Structure formats: structure tokens, C-alpha cells
Amino acid sequence: MALHATHRDAGRVTVVDFSGRITLGEGSALLRKTIRDLLEDDRRLFLLNLGDVDYIDSSGIGELVSAFTAVRNRDGEMKLLNLTKKVRDLLQITKLFTVFEVFSDEGAALSSYR
Amino acid sequence: MAPETKHLEVTLETQVESVNLAEEMCLRVAEAAGFGEDDCYRIGMSVREGVINAFHYGNQEKPEKKIYLAVELSPDKMTIHVLDEGKGFNLADVPDPLAEENLLSTSGRGIFLMRAFMDEFAVVTGSTGGAEIVMSKKLPVPGGNPANGQSNTANNPHQEA
């Protein structure tokens, strides 16, 4: 299933709702372009809702890390929301749970930004 | 009569679409062999990572090079071979993606995932001179846990923020 992305404003935070697979090729490219375009639009606070993302491969993981670094390098924050079990397990075994802030409640996530 | 080992081979182009094709092909074999959903996911992911490795690192995305995928189904395990036409590599030279200094690396997790998800994993020099990834998973025991074991990571819950 191809990756789809839409974004919405929640106060200062841009929530990006993804659905589909973040894998080598179009999925990873769309994630990269989405975050890059929003950064160019002077947005700095991001909450990536991955509730409908059921599959990520190493390329997708790399793209998430790349997005995280790009946002941080512009003094922004990027956090994750609603991980599916497969994605959660993947972030655990790759130790990226120690890097990303992960939430299961959007309200709690939105109130966590500096 | 000796138990039969089934063998399937396919030559793939060095292109992104080959990753999905290889995954789908191996998933069909795994499902037919009786693997449960969790194991099919792990096998599919490992095949993806093996072919991504061949596509990107081995063949360096050069379209004139090929990727050779082979699947063997013996009575006790499913074995997958992914061979590229690159220069080969030494597993010992692959950085540990879990090391603190590599956590924010944007690449280098494929080998780690294949090792984590399969029962056996090795890299040898293949007939092309390139790297040949050989990985296998034991077939489920008939009448065993239909889930084929839950992910070992499920035993390591993480406290969310």
C-alpha cells in the first residue's frame, strides 16, 4: 500500500498523518519531501501520526531518523504518535525508542512541546 | 523416499521494484510452508533487507547488474540466498547500528534486522564474486503455536511518554 500524508495544524504543532508503508522508494521519498516542504514553510514543531502505518523497512527507519535530524538542526522538535505494534517493535530493537519521543495520546503529545 | 527439498530461483533487475517482488515471492513460499503471520513478517522483512543490500551496496544501483534470489524449502527450514554482483563485504566491517554513535545514522540497519529476524544468517563470497547472503528460518512444528512465537521484542515493553 502506497504511503499517503496529510497535515493539519494543532496550535503551534503541525500534525502529519501518514498511512501506508514507509519503505524504499516512493514511501521514503514522500516522507522526506513532506518534512522538507513543511520545514521550508517555516514550521518547526512536528507530530508524526503513524497510526495507519503498518510497515517500515530499514530505508523508512533511515528516513525517520533523517527527518528527526533535519528538524532538530533547525531548532525544532519531531515526535511520534500512535505506533502500530510492528513499528513499535522495530523502533525497540533498533534502540530508536531512546531517540524518539513516542505518544499514544494526541493531547498529551501536543502539550509536551517546549 | 528421501524428503524432497524444493528449490526456486529468480534473477532480479537492480531496481527498487525488485525489492517488493522478492518480498512477495518469498512471502508466498513462507505462507504455503505453514509459517504464521509473525514469522512471515520477519521473513518478508529479511528478504527486503537482503535485496536492498544487494541493490544499494552490492550492485550500487547499477542497472546492468543483476540480483540472484534463491529459496530452498527443506523438510525442516526455509533458506534464502541473495547474491549480488558487487565486490563483497566482510560482516566484521559493518558498523553496529545500536552503538550510541550510530543511533542517528540514516543507514546500516539492514544486516542487523536480518540477523534479528532469521534463525541463521551468514554472508559468503558468491559465485559472482559478490556478497551472498544466506539466511534461514526453521519451519513451524505441525500443531505448534499458530502464531509461530510472538516477537521477542514484545517481551521488552517500553514505557511511553
Can you walk through the features of this model?
Chain A has four helices and five strands. Chain A is α/β, with parallel strands linked by helices and 114 residues long. Helix content of chain A is 39%, strand content 32%. The N and C termini of chain B lie far apart (58 Å). In chain B, helix 1 runs antiparallel to helix 2 and helix 2 packs antiparallel against helix 3. Chain B is built from three helices and five strands; from the N terminus they run E-H-H-E-E-H-E-E. At the A-B interface, helix 2, helix 3 and strand 5 of A face helix 1, helix 2 and helix 3 of B.
Write the layout of secondary structure elements.
The complex is a heterodimer of chains A (114) and B (161).
Chain A (H helix, E strand, L loop, with lengths): L3 E7 L2 E10 L3 H15 L4 E12 L1 H16 L3 E5 L3 H9 L8 E2 L2 H5 L4
Helix pairs in contact in A: 1-2
Chain B lengths: L5 E8 L3 H17 L3 H22 L7 E8 L3 E7 L26 H8 L2 E6 L5 E8 L23
Antiparallel strand pairs in B: 1-2, 2-3, 3-5, 4-5
Helix pairs in contact in B: 1-2, 2-3
